[in-house]
Structure formats: C-alpha cells, structure tokens
Hints:
Strand 1, helix 1 and strand 2 (about 25-30) form a beta-alpha-beta unit. The chain folds into two domains: about 1-200, 3-Layer(aba) Sandwich (Rossmann fold); about 210-300, Formyl transferase, C-terminal domain (Methionyl-tRNA Fmet Formyltransferase, Chain A, domain 2). The strands form four sheets. The protein has a seven-stranded mixed β-sheet with strand order 5-2-1-6-7-9-10. Strands 12, 13, 14, 15, 16 and 17 form a six-stranded antiparallel β-sheet that branches. Strands 3-4 form a two-stranded antiparallel sheet. It is an alpha/beta fold. It contains eight helices and 17 strands. The longest helix is centred in the middle third of the chain and has 19 residues, at about 160-180. The termini are far apart. Helix 1 (about 10-20) packs parallel to helix 2, helix 1 runs parallel beside helix 6 and helix 5 (about 120-125) runs antiparallel to helix 7 (about 220-225). The protein is elongated, with a radius of gyration of 22 Å.
Amino acid sequence: MKIVFAGTPQFAAAALEALVAAGHEIALVLTQPDKASGRGMKTAQSPVKMLALKSGLAVLQPNSLKNDPEMERKIASLDADVMVVAAYGLILPASLLDLPKLGCINIHASLLPRWRGAAPIQRAILAGDEKTGITLMQMDAGLDTGDILSMAEIPILANDTGQTLHDRLAALGAKSIVELLSAERKDRFPAKPQPEEGACYAAKLSKQEAAVDWNKDAVEIERMIRAFDPFPGAFCLFEEIPVKIWLSRISQPMKGAPGEVLDAGREGLIVACGKGALELLVLQKPGGKRLMTQEFLSGFRISKGSFLA
C-alpha cells in the first residue's frame, strides 16, 4: 500500500519499521519538530525521524496541521491509500481525515473505549487493570472515538512498568497494523462502531502527580511507581531533598504513621502507608544514578523513625 505515516516516539517507530519491512511504500513521514532535551538541552530528533532518514524516506515536521492548506495539498497530491497515525502528538484536522482513499487509521495503546487519550499505558497500570492491548481505529473528528477495525489483547503483568508495557504494546501495534494492511484485506476493513459504555479518559502525565502520597494504600503506591517508570518518575521528599523511587514491593503489615520509615538497614527501607507498608528497592538522588536501596543508604542516610514526605 501507499502510506502516509504520522508518528513521533519509539512506539510509533516500531510500527513504521514494520510497515517498511512488509514492503509498503511510505510516501511521506510526518513527525514533530526536533526538540531540546536532556541535561544539556541538546536538540534531538524523534525516533520516527531517525528511522525515516535511515530508511531514505521523505520527512516533514510541521509545528501544526491546523489551517495549513499547503500541507493538505501536499498530502492530497500523494494519492495515498491510507494514513497510519501512531502517537503523533499533533491534532489532525477533519479536512485531512478523508484525503487518503481509506482514511486515517490510528494505532492506540488500549482496548477502546477504555483509556482514550494521551497516556493509556500508564493509566491502565495505575488503575490496576488486568489487561490492555492495541486498538486499530478509523479516525474521526472525536478524541479516539472512531470505529474499531481490530483489537489485540495482552495481560498486564504484576511487574510491568510503564516502559516494559510500552515495549510489548509497541511490538503488538506494529504486528497488528501490518496484519490489517495485508494484501488480502486491503479492499475492505471490518469496522464496527465504538461503544460509549466503559469509556474513560487517559489524561497526559504530569510531574506534579508523580509525588508519592504516603496516605494512600501501599498497593496503589506500588502501582504508581511502576506506571511512572521511566516518566515522570515517582518521587518523595526526605528533608526537602527529592528522592526518586524506581522499584518497590508490598511489605508485611507494620504499624506506623504514613511516611514513617519502619526499617532502614539490612532488610531494606520499609515505609508505612495509609494502609499497609512498602519496601523501597531502587532509589535515586538528584544527580545520581539508580541504586539498590542498600547501596543507596550507604551514601544517603535515612534512619528508622524518620519520615518521608
């Protein structure tokens, strides 16, 4: 098929790579503009752009697609069969949705209508969902409300982080879109309307919500720590110093006020929660690297009876 591809992060790059490997003609790649990132704020290309350039594909990086008749003419002139969209990060105006012969197909990382929106992977872990998956959706003017073309389901494992679940879903999304666009099925997609029952919204992640609230249930905090790995990274404060928490596990119940350090030694760092207690396994101080708790405590003293905020 002749495809216009729109995507930005690694999740999208996995799909683009699979489409190229399957022999489809990628007529144009749309990705977000290069952005400054990291400690040195160096300008970085998106994973999709790096892959596209490596593959010799044409790339455009508009700041917006709204009110851009020149871009619409460019896409229309390609006479593409379909536009594939995966975590692009820019809104596609309604005028673009019908330009390709088969419209625009979105690769969404949830079982729609559950977790429409920007952060479905992390929200599914936070909520304690037992499963998630990939939905291929015919895009319409709404927010992830279009007809469903196909769905593929996977379990959310007890040790899944935002990163590990992302990686498994990226691979599943790549596999799903290649199967949908296979030669046998290219003339007709089996679309079905998306139900409204069970719909919920996966809001974009913010650094502010990554602060641990020790008044919450230990189970809830443990899920939060996994969901926010690698971004934005769950953290707490010890004597006003932010400490990131990358790994934890539920501890045996112990009496203590929320945030109280119940043990800090050979047994690790155990903290009381509103309900239950949590053992912190991997920590990171500002400017440092991720360390197992025992190693972390050798250079960052946190004593039994102190409090984490």
